[in-house]
Amino acid sequence: MTMIGKSVKRVGIEEKVSGAVKFAADMKFANALHVKFVRLDVGHARIKAIDTSAAYMLEGVHFILTAADFPIPMPRYGPFLIDQPIIATGETKFFGDPVAAVVAETENIAEQAAKLVKVDYEELPGVYSLEQALAPDAPLVQDPSIRVNPSLANTNILDEWIFGWGNPDNCPAELELEDSFNFPMTTHFAIEPHVFIAEPEHDGVVITSTVQHPFLLQRVVSDALKMPISKIRVIVPELGGGFGGKGYPKFEPLMAFLAMKLQRTVRLKLTLEETFLVGRRNSSTVRVRAGFQKDGKLAYMKVYADFLIGAYANASPRVVAKGALAGCGIFNPKNVHIHSRAILSHTVPGTAFRGFGAPQFMWALDSIMDMAARKLNIDRLEIRLKNIPQKGEVFIHGEKVCDGDWAEGITKAAKAIDWGKPLPQNCGRGLGIGVKTPAPATVSQAMVRLFSDGSLTLLVGTTEMGQGARTVLSQLAADAMQIPMEHISIINGDTGIVPFDSVTASSRSTVFVGNAVQLACQDLKEKLRKITAECFDTDASDVRFENGKVIIPGKVLTYTDVLVAHYGYGSGEVIGMGTYKEARNPDHPLGGGVSFYEVIFAGAEVEVDKETGFVHVRKLVTVGDIGKAINPLLVESQDEGGAIQGLGHSIMEHLIMDERGRILNLGALDYRIPTTQDIPDILKSMLVENMDGSGPSGAKGTGESGIIPIGSAIGLAVADATGVFFHDLPLTPESVWQGLNIH
User: Fold this and answer.
1) Is 70 exceeded by the pLDDT of residue 743?
2) How wide is the angle at C-alpha 490 spanned by C-alphas 207 and 449, nearest 5°?
3) Domains parsed from the chain with CATH numbers
4) How many Cα neighbours within 13 Å face the side chain of 593?
5) Nearest 5°: phi and psi at 719?
6) How far apart are CA 553 and CA 538, in angstroms?
């Protein structure tokens, strides 16, 4: 019986529900020292001197790390560009940039000692907005000597990407529109704190971390500390939420350095407020100029995007570049110019965040489509249908063709919110589209171990962070080998045990790791076929696999029968390995092409209180073009979770900074996220399953997409309800009231 398409029980659900699951913060380490940071209360400053004498007087303080403890030049790290120092050297580049790390017997002692460290500093002018960063006389965020692009080294433009085709500069249109749309900085707000533990082991180090990408972390620590990768083991317990905020290395190089220097286990647990200081979503301004014919068909589109990425590159170059590749969304004008820039600033480094640049683009693109529909007196659903590619049609030149029936998806979303039917006063409807591409040219490997009793262990590099990867991958192994789910165990999250996986991100696990699991099971079967032929004196071509049995002429064997015949009772196992990778292309601006499109549609119905500006979301629906849902309930849950997270940046969430670059709304009290009281009256996720993906059984990736179209759907529903187009998210009561009273 197939396991594909079944909403089987989530692997490990009992431990989660009962509270028995051990997150990193729950783990106990004997004889561990504890780390706390010293930070300055400014955005940008020159460090003149650090006095640690009073802190060292406190009993229980073992060591206080500063830049002086490192060689010159200071070792730096980063997932794509190696630009971030292990600890602040010379200057702090953003509010919260650590200048010293106190190591003590307990967290309390470390915290007290950190307050006793005296830092003599000079506050410096900073750039905290796009306008400030791009000003001709702006102070440079990074020293030109560490910049990799010489032509931009004396600017705050880290890098830029240009895509295009056709001739948009000489393309006649009957309606031309141009406008800009702003997207806020937001924080990931995972409930589980960030935790980093490093233990010396022989001549290497074991790092236990709340990180999504353990193998990438291995490489980054290896580069920063000049250690062989084989000497660095990374263990990732189950994560209590990630959303990209736990994707890339943060303080692991520092912790590994401390562990090896002190030859003691060191532990760092961040508070919720501190997590605001390690990464956030890139804010952006996206300007769109679009030309339309009278019937609503796009003639051309020009898109200019500036992303404020913070003090260091982190993952932002990939965020900006990948977002720009699909910078026209799924709309398919024949003439396109896209220019996207990553802008440095004295702010917390931007990083990956669910949607990876796509929500910023789609807020602008969907808005310009609604504006055109109003000008041309065309239905807003109709103008989208006119500009969505058909399956098999090219819409991003040089990339994979449209791989879904996207008209079906958006029509389904519109129908679910009763598109076209009358609404009460002050109510409106909106549609949003989400599209993103997965990480290009990545690699996933999987191992399956079949034991003498017929049970199986699956080993994968994927990190479990609530998305249900362990469940889906176990289903795929169970289906391939026709072994009951309860006879399968899965091991993940330990680079010392499991095979390589590039990243747990980009909604790629079901496709990439899922394909690797299926290939590993094929490899296992080929080995079983050979063993069976040898042990039972038959031709390998006569060996078949059916319903979890091994069939040969005249006999039906169990897996146990085969292993016992080959190894003897209770001995030996058969191992299968699978590797799935997409081709690298050094000439491609992203290193490789698109393997599938993650596309979703959203519909929203809102009611606006014009006296207060409060937006009440009555209905919110999503329709995911999923190809095939391996576990439908998990997919629907992911889309609903993404929709609620998108509700946050649509109507409430944004980081607020003062003129000195300090974040004013750190923590749960001052940073507003959706609660159960904010859930729409009707929340529904639906799927389109046409088995047209590149993953197992035609699956495509999902997980990130649920968040992408929500700002558009809600923002344009507000415009429908009020008659006013808004340009800035979030649509807080204050901003809506101001917008309505200005017009």
Assistant:
1) no
2) 110
3) 33-124+188-275 (3.90.1170.50), 283-439+588-742 (3.30.365.10), 442-581 (3.30.365.10)
4) 9
5) -60, -40
6) 8
How do strand 33-38 and strand 266-269 relate by DSSP bridges?
A: parallel
For residue 509, the 8-state DSSP code is I
123 - beta bridge partners? 45
Contact present, 111 and 101 (Cβ < 8 Å): no
Burial string for 91-104 (b: 16+ CB within 10 Å, else e) reads: bbbbbbbbbbbbbb
pLDDT value, residue 303: 98
Element (H, E) at 575: strand 574-581
Residue with tokens 């946050």: 648
Side-chain-facing half-sphere of 724: CA atoms under 13 Å: 18
Mean pLDDT of the chain: 97
Three-class secondary structure of residue 625 per DSSP: strand
DSSP string covering 219-264, please? HHHHHHHT--GGGEEEE-PPPS--TTTTSS-SSHHHHHHHHHHHTS
Strand (E) or helix (H) holding 180: strand 175-183
Place of tokens 């609503």: 296
Query: Residue 626 to residues 11, 227, 540, 695, 699: CA-CA distances in angstroms?
Result: 22, 42, 38, 10, 6
Choice among 91, 464, 653, 704 that is catalytic: 704
DSSP code per residue over 26-74 = G---TT-EEEEEE--SSSSEEEEEEE-HHHHTSTTEEEEE-GGGS-SSP
Residue 416 to residue 185: CA distance in whole angstroms: 31
Give residue 708's region: left, alpha or beta (phi > 0; psi -120 to 50): alpha
198's CB contacts (< 8 A; 6+ apart) are 205, 206, 207, 208, 252, 255, 256, 258, 259, 260, 265, 266
Residue reference for tokens 């009611």: 607
Condensed to tens digits (0 to 9), the pLDDT of residues 212-270 reads 999 999 999 999 999 999 999 999 999 999 999 999 999 999 999 999 999 999 999 99
Quickly count: other Cβ atoms within 10 Å of residue 290's Cβ.
26
- Tokens, residue 298: 């796009």
Pairwise CA distance, residues 639 & 41, whole Å:
39
Burial class (CB in 10 A: 0-12, 13-18, 19+), 311: buried
Q: Order the strands of the 118-123 sheet from edge to edge.
A: 91-92, 45-51, 118-123
DSSP characters for 438-494?
A: PPSS-EEEEEEEE-TTS-EEEEE-PPPSSS-HHHHHHHHHHHHHT--GGGEEEE-SB
Classified as helix, coil or strand, 198 is strand
Say whether 192 is catalytic.
Answer: no
The residue among 653, 627, 620, 641 whose CA lies nearest residue 704 is 641
φ, ψ (nearest 5 deg) of residue 657:
-115, 150
User: Using an 8 Å Cβ cutoff, are 199 and 205 in contact?
Assistant: yes
Q: Is the pTM of this model over 0.90?
A: yes
Q: 550 Cβ partners below 8 Å, 6+ apart?
A: 528, 532, 543, 544, 556, 557, 558, 559, 561, 562
Query: Does the pLDDT at position 1 exceed 80?
Result: no
Dihedral angle of Cα 674, 676, 680, 683, to the nearest 10 degrees = 110
**686 pLDDT exceeds 90?**
yes
Residue 456 confidence (pLDDT) above 90: yes
CA 637 to chain centre: 17
Residue 123 contacts residue 341 (beta carbons within 8 Å) = no
Q: How far apart are CA 119 and CA 99, in angstroms?
A: 9
Place of tokens 């003691």: 264
- Measured CA to CA, the distance from residue 206 to residue 645 in angstroms comes to 34
Give me 615's structure tokens. 């937006």
